[in-house]
Amino acid sequence: MQRLDRSAGATTEHLLQSKEDIGRGLFIAPYEGESLCDVAVVFDDDGHIGYADERPTDRDIDGILWQRWGGTQTGPLQWSHHRPDRQRAVMERPHRCGGCAGEPDHDERGVLWLLNANEQAQATLTFPRDIRTATPAMCRQCAERALRACRVLQAGFIALRVRETELVGVRGILYSLTSPPQADRFVRFDDDAIHRVVARQLMLELRDAELDEDTLSPPGHGGRAPTAVPGPVWGWQ
Ligand SMILES: [Zn+2]
Q1: CB atoms within 10 A of CB 79
Q2: 88-140 pLDDT per residue, tens
Q3: CA nearest 126: which of 206, 235, 210?
Q4: How far is the CA of 141 from the centre of ligand 1 (A)?
Q5: Record's superkingdom (predicted)?
Q6: Most exposed: 10, 60, 77, 132, by fewest CB within 10 Å?
Q7: Which residues, other chains included, contact 231 with Cβ-Cβ below 8 Å and sequence gap of 6+?
Q8: Virtual torsion, Cα 155, 159, 164, 167, nearest 10 deg
């Protein structure tokens, strides 16, 4: 599909004003009071999908259909989930920090990305490498906070520096006229299936990502021990 310059007219810009959670929350995580709306998906004559009661805000600047969420920012944060419109807002250009929606950390090596990686991944991955992810960049303060709070990151992480990124597609539920919907499918922007997906996450490719071994260090033994409290799951994807 013909794609527009997403930086020119991001429809999620207004979301970036909501920074009341800087220092304690996670911008992209939904609150308990927010949830996915129950909407009916319908096919048109071209085999493309839409909502039965579709609103202009259901699609992004490229015409891609997104999950519709409602509710209010009340109750506890659902750490391990992404609220689609806020994930999209920080993944668009210019990239924002996934924790506070502020400016992500950057130095001469590029922008900071923090991903979970188990021991095996840490031992076998070589750099520089290209990585496809739904995880946003981070500022240093939020990265350090995530390392203190997230049990998944405490089990293993890598910090990366990235100079070049490309928005490559979305992940969501792929619908078909002939088979049941398929969850968690990655669809590239130039794939015709983009007209049959309800997007949940914007996907980014990090180009020639380099390992950063200086900026962040694992939480010390004197710090807070890993707990069973659910933390933000900060993953490859
Ligand atoms: Zn931040």
Answers
A1: 19
A2: 999 999 999 999 999 999 999 999 999 988 888 888 999 999 999 999 999 99
A3: 210
A4: 6
A5: Bacteria
A6: 132
A7: 79, 80, 146, 149, 150, 151, 152, 153
A8: 20
Determine phi and psi for 70, rounding to 5 degrees: -135, -170
How far is the CA of 197 from the CAs of 111, 117, 182, 187, 223, in angstroms? Answer: 30, 29, 9, 8, 43
Chain segment 126-184, per-residue pLDDT in tens: 999 999 999 999 999 999 988 888 778 888 899 999 999 999 999 999 999 999 999 99
CA 18 to ligand 1 centroid distance, Å = 13
Both tokens of 206, joined, read: 């990090």
Instruction: Kindly list the domain boundaries of the chain, sorted by start residue.
Output: 13-211
Gap from CA of 196 to ligand 1 centroid (Å): 34
Residue 140 CA to ligand 1 centre (angstroms): 7
130: left (phi over 0), alpha (psi -120 to 50) or beta: beta
The residue type found at 94 is P
Distance CA 174, CA 180 (A): 9
pLDDT of residue 180: 97
- Specify whether the CB–CB gap between 170 and 57 falls below 8 A: no
Q: Bridge partners of 166?
A: 205
- The Å distance, Cα 21 to ligand 1 centre, comes to 10
* CA of residue 102 to ligand 1 center, whole Å: 5
Tokens of residue 163, six digits: 């100079």
pLDDT tops 80 at residue 229: no
Helices and strands in the chain, H and E counts: 4, 11
